[in-house]
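Whether sequence alone determines local backbone shape is best considered at the level of individual chains. We regard such an encoding as a compact summary of how the chain folds. The sequence in question and its structure tokens are set out directly beneath this paragraph.
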Amino acid sequence: MCKLKQLTEIIEPIPDGATIMVGGFGSPGTPFSLLAELLRQGKRNLTIIKNDANQDGYGVSRLIEAGVVSKLLTTHLGLSAPARRANLAGSLHVEFFSQGLFAERIRCAGVGLPGVLSDIELPDELGATRQSVVVAGRTLFFESAITADYALLRADKADAFGNLSYRGAARNFSPLMAMAADQVFVEARSITNEPLDPDSIHTPGTYVSGLTQVAGDSYEYQPIRR
């Protein structure tokens, strides 16, 4: 099956109301072109699972500002004013997680586990009541695995088989998300007809449903000035 597709083709099958994991930690690893195409095609009522909401005018923050995200699972909103405003106004439902549990709950989905036990306590305002168990005298909380209908990722290099290689810290949550979603769509800076060296593969192509080449020339991909 050919995994190479046009940008529009990759996003077209995603329906309104979909649950979507998005790779990235800030800008590194965020698939900005795939997110922009979601917005252009008018997808709505989306649940987004991402470490952060990006910053004003970038990625997920743009989707929230446009009102197309109804729910966000994340570790923080700090850099996105639209996300903070929508959360306070009640138009965006936000579930917060500690970053470690965010990653671990996604990993659990990828390896077929129902969840993980944690001793991390959360204030009531940060989450719903959680199941608890007592193990060796310790009270532990059950954190269920996080899954998604789709994952949108950015890779540095890919081959035609869908094998992916990420650059540096841009790898972040992407390998975990690739295992935890039903379908995985990827934008890659470069795509080669030659198979990637097995030692350089961070996500095997067996997880990848669709792949498109995006050089990353727009402002979102550039280093953020402070």
User: Anything to note?
Assistant: The helical segments are 7-11, 32-40, 59-65, 81-89, 99-110, 174-180. The chain is about 20% helix and 30% strand.
